[in-house]
Amino acid sequence: MGVLAIGVGAALCGSGAVAHFRERTPRNEMLLALGGFCFLLAGLFVTRSGHF
């Protein structure tokens, strides 16, 4: 479960990086990066805490 959340977070962070270079609006970039960061933190917490 934690590895899945880390993978989703990494994919969202990568999408935010792509949006930074492709789109003119910083809103999409910010939302993707923030969502990815939240998924990364949640995945790291679940992995380190031993749940699942």
TrEMBL record:
Membrane-spanning ranges: 29-47
Keyword terms of this UniProt record: Membrane, Transmembrane, Transmembrane helix
Protein name stated in the entry: Uncharacterized protein
Lineage: Bacteria, Pseudomonadati, Pseudomonadota, Alphaproteobacteria, Hyphomicrobiales
